[in-house]
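Budget justification aside, the reviewers requested a transparent look at the raw inputs and outputs of the sequence design task funded under Objective 1. We therefore reproduce one unedited record. The lines immediately below are the structure tokens for a 340-residue chain.
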């Protein structure tokens, strides 16, 4: 049992990870500025697990707030989710993204160092891989310049953390490169609750199905893929949450800094996702074909062998599970946490 500081713990992936941390009998301190989340997610984490967490409303860019957390709680390791993630917004407001994601992460590791906490799991992304790599992507393939500023911040933070661990061998840092997180907790009580128009496929599909949006625009149907639409590696958020526990339990000891892909290893096209969603949930999803979206690649999926071998992690949920669970959450919470 350990005491884990979860930055960004009120968000989509963070809240699911808090549930799994409690299920594994860890203690949890959440540090979040609620800029893209609701405290209701944490109320529901506590309701689901019967455990109580410590919540600190604070910003990772604020050193005093961080120092106070480390002074008040004996933290064993940090899982760092806090950051901004809207790709389009990152193009319009790069400095805000550099500040939150890069400066915020530097500020966090500085506070960790002052508190002598050297175990860190960082939320990275498959977007750091060079676009010229052919899927399945493995961790030895080169990284490249991401097509947007959001992805750029992930690459920079990965590189900073790598250099930090070379300079000071007390650090053990797991970089988890997420593929495409979807799905929700089985209960339907917590899930993804994007603000405004969703950027990502799955929340768009569920919002069309629930009647909040008219139709899905499928970005491109002339890619060199099974049916012309983009192929991605969708991963259930509970499997993803468990990858953080596997990293904490099995690897955060003298590893320096190391990356692991967290994906299922299977690619699904946009049309396959839409059609399977309709089949398993019995609801129609109106759609139209639209031009390709700038910055998109045709195909991206993981080779996840390293995570299986080294973290002892496996993905247990199928695409059908992911689509059922996403719909269960959306149907029960048509306006997300805004329903309460
Ligand atoms: P999310 O927006 O739901 O959660 C992020 C949380 O961080 C939110 O609760 C937000 O309020 C908080 N936050 C943001 N800036 C902060 C700051 N300066 N100080 C304190 N808290 C702050 O996003 P998510 O989908 O749960 O993603 C979690 C992490 O995983 C992010 O770092 C994201 O970039 C990364 N990631 C997400 C995806 C994805 O598709 N969801 C894919 C790859 C990587
Ligand atoms: C996107 C981001 C990536 C980020 C990730 C997680 C871009 C170019 N990439 O990845 O940097 O790490 O989200 O936040 O924005 N699609 C549609 N219609 C939609 C939405 C998506 O057809 O309304 C298609 C896309 O073209 C793609 C697939 O669905 O083929 C998945 O898209 P999305 O969920 O946005 O994820 P990524 O593009 O993989």
């Amino acid at each position: 049992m350990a005491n884990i500081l979860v930055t960004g713990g009120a968000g989509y992936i963070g809240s699911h990870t808090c549930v799994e941390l409690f299920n594994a009998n860890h203690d949890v301190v959440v540090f979040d500025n609620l800029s893209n989340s609701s405290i209701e997610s944490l109320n529901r984490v506590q309701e689901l697990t019967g455990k109580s967490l410590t919540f600190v409303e604070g910003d990772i860019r604020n050193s005093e707030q961080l120092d106070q957390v480390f002074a008040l709680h004996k933290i064993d390791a940090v899982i760092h989710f806090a950051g901004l993630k809207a790709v389009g917004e990152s193009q319009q407001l790069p400095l805000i993204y550099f500040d939150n994601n890069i400066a915020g992460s530097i500020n966090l590791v500085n506070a960790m160092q002052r508190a002598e906490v050297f175990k860190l799991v960082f939320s990275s992304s498959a977007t750091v891989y060079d676009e010229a790599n052919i899927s399945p992507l493995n961790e030895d393939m080169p990284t490249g310049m991401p097509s947007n500023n959001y992805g750029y911040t992930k690459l920079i933070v990965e590189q900073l953390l790598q250099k930090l661990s070379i300079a000071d061998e007390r650090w053990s840092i797991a970089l988890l490169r997420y593929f495409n997180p979807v799905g929700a907790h089985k209960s339907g009580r917590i899930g993804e609750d994007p603000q405004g128009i969703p950027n990502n496929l799955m929340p768009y599909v569920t919002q069309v199905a629930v009647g909040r949006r008219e139709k899905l625009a499928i970005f491109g149907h002339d890619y060199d893929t099974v049916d012309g639409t983009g192929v991605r590696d969708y991963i259930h958020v509970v499997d993803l949450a468990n990858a953080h526990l596997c990293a904490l339990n099995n690897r955060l000891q003298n590893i320096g800094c190391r990356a692991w892909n967290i994906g299922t290893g299977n690619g699904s096209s946009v049309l396959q996702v839409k059609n399977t969603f309709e089949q398993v949930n019995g609801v129609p999803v109106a759609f139209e074909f639209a031009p390709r979206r700038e910055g998109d690649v045709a195909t991206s999926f993981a080779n996840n062998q390293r995570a299986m071998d080294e973290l002892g992690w496996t993905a247990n949920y199928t695409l059908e599970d992911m689509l059922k669970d996403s719909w269960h959450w959306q149907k029960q919470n048509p306006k997300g946490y805004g329903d309460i």
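The CA atoms of residues 9 and 30 lie 5 Å apart. The chain has a mean pLDDT of 96. Computational costs for records of this kind are itemized in the attached budget.
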